[in-house]
Protein: Cobalamin biosynthesis protein CobW
Organism: Massilia varians
Amino acid sequence: MEPIPSTILTGFLGAGKTTLLNRILHEEHGLKIAVIENEFGQENIDNEILVRDTGEQIVEMNNGCICCTVRGDLIVALTSLAQKRAAGEIAFDRVVIETTGLANPGPVAQTFFVDEEVGANYMLDAVVTVVDARHAMDQLDRHEEAQRQVGFADKILLSKTDLVDAAAVDVLKARLHRINPRAPISTSDFGRAPISEVLDLRGFNLNDKLELDPDFLRAEEDHDHDHEHEHGEHCGHDHAHGEACHHHDHHHSHHTDDIAAFVFKSERAFDPERLDQFLGSMVQVFGPQMLRYKGVLSMHGADRKVVFQGVHQIMGSDLGAKWGESETRGSKMVFIGKNLPKDVFISGLEQCLV
């Protein structure tokens, strides 16, 4: 039986996750989706809960979806759902896990890689983060959890864009791109987002079609420009992003995010053994700070691409498609983390090239 595609839905308190889930649970989309409310410990916040009964409860919806509230071990909950599905007691073909608004998505994502039974029954499709356009700038300033949720995202959905002007949305998008240049951004006001913007994104799946988002390299170049720009005393440039520039200058001291992304790219091939040793040592030292990392690699002597990715200390790789005869071989890697030493990573990776 094919593994069940699973989506982690995250976002800070009040971002609109539950509004989005309620639409998914009641709209006629033809999919049978199991929604898991993953409540950690005693953290009960009324507007974050769809099913308010205590313990673990499964509620069936009219459109074929089911909603399950879990207090406790997510591995146990996923395994239990898979067993009930195999026994024909319930039917679903997708899973959406909603984390609490203060949760770090990392341990939830790691669940899919650390337990053999979960790995056999489920496939992590993507981490989707809902961001409140009205309050996000302040939340990102004040709460590391908000930065982590953006850093882990494979897809970002902006909510409440009707409450802010277009210039503020542009400034927020620029900041989100600096934190995580690999996650495309779209809107989800009042929970209105096409199901295709939430499910089957294949953002986490290793497969031979996987390539990095082409915009992330451009975002890295933009980041270098913005970085220099933010540290200047005044904005003297006359360009299309003048308003955003003025905003950053005004709030300069408040928007230095601990979580950020950087990119490595080279047309030279890697030495597999040296790269494996280097990445292993980096994960050992900086693993807790490494939120997400992902890449498509050219290995010396190999005719196929190598796709690698990781979450914290868990790292994996897989063979991708063959290099095309006319295709320029090269490696593209993106790292998203908290206060990672970019220079150490870049120089170390350069030493792994043939």
Q: What stands out?
A: DSSP finds eleven helices and 13 strands in the chain. Residues 40-55, 206-211, 213-217, 219-254 have pLDDT under 50 and may be disordered. The longest strand covers residues 122-132.
